[in-house]
From TrEMBL:
The keyword rRNA-binding does not apply. It comes from the Bacteria. This is cysteine desulfurase. Its EC number is 2.8.1.7. Its cofactor is pyridoxal 5'-phosphate. Keywords: 2Fe-2S, Iron, Iron-sulfur, Metal-binding, Pyridoxal phosphate, Transferase. Pfam families: Aminotran_5 (PF00266). Catalyzes the removal of elemental sulfur atoms from cysteine to produce alanine. Seems to participate in the biosynthesis of the nitrogenase metalloclusters by providing the inorganic sulfur required for the Fe-S core formation.
Amino acid sequence: MEVYLDNNATTAVDPAVYEQMKPFFCDIFGNPNSLHRFGAGTHPKMMEALDYLYSGINADDEDDIVITGNATESINTVIKGIWIDKILNADKNHIIVSEVEHPAVTATCKFLESQGVSVTYLPVNEEGIVDVQSVKQYLREDTALVSIMWANNETGKIFPIEEIGQICKEAGVLFHSDATQAIGKIPVDVQKANVDFISFSAHKFHGPKGVGGLYIKKGNKLTPLLHGGEQMGGKRAGTVDVASMVGMGFAMKLAVEALEYEATEVKRLRDKLESAILELPETVVIGGVNNRTPNTTLISIRGVEGESMLWDLNQKGIGASTGSACASEDLEANPVMNAFGSDSELAHTGVRFSLSRFNTEEQIDYAIEAIIGAVKRLRNLSSSYAYAPESHKSGL
């Protein structure tokens, strides 16, 4: 049996989404900026896709949703755009982000630091989220932007976006949230959240890879990351990938319709898997079990290297992760677990399981059996665990 439990890295395209996309490869293939009927033929479905996107995040008609290549491009557009508009051309030189942001945020901020920008990296508390008051504490007169993720890609922890947005609004500071791991898992309401920008990728909610979105609240302007054309109202140059745009819009529609299923059935299967693993001694959910997206668990298994666990599970046809797929080949200790203050041993033991609406009870039962077997085998081989006192290994 094959069991895919790495849906925070990417998801399978929903077959219904694929069907919506198919006509735009060979039949309705015109460039949407062309004036002839071949180009105009793409417009109805493109407008429908935009309607689904606007509705899915409760955007206002006067807001902008720019179609990008992925969330990484959207994030770069916001942070570098603010750098150009508010830092180079104004008197603001400070950005605030959290320590556990996706590399798309932190790497971009490191680049800006090399250009003389001051960046504050907010620590997380014992639950793995940013304390609202710490945002307020570190705001400065020269703060141009606050960027805090909506939900963490490794722990699934949900951040207090509405409260942070209100603080930024009162301070007159722009607020961006990377909503990549939130859309399709929990409700995302940009009006309620007081955000100026959000970024997202279709492939995280059963849409195609290679397409993402950038929400821009009305009244906000950004220097484009890409120049060379008037597509997307001049906000992002380049011929629009119509098939992917249609796919992302329809995937958004289906994801929003499935939110109740995510909150009940996906959560039930996640909890079943998690509970079975936690019955093993010296296992713990990083960040605790509260205030998370319903599909995600990051579990530390003392005495078991995360990479070794993934190898064993892969042999059984099970896909999981040690954390962010964008850093999966980096064998350094998990930076999110380091941010929690985990000791050097535990920082290498985190394994992330992330489910989707396509996982089944049978798959979870199979995964539980394989995981328990892998933990027993690897602990018996571990020099740091296998030779500890028997009380240390109670139950194994």
